Amino acid sequence: MQTERSIPELTKDMAFHLGDMFRNELKLARVEATDSVKSLSGGIGMIVTGAVVGVSAVTLALFAAAYGLSTVFPMWAATAIVAGAAGLLALILVSIGRSAMKPKELSFPRTRDQVSRDLKNISEHVH
Description:
mainly alpha, about 85% helix
């Protein structure tokens, strides 16, 4: 046999469950944020390492190109040509990189889905 509960008891119980549900959603969001930051930090470390090695290789290649052009042009002109070409390439690469940056790694799809389910569940039980 089911016992009848008063409205204040039901309200108190509902408030407790809503608070508990909210805390769980915050925990899930925190876990997702931590996972996203960890995956980004590992990638950033690899990018920095690759950039350091790449800068060294590009510097040597630019010196080689300037020395190669110095057989046709004076050294100052060969160096200016190589520097101009490298600057133009750098500008193009930075523009492409800026357009490719998207914050999709920092979204919280599981939290969004869980909150949506919780709101739907609440609206079904309130009516």
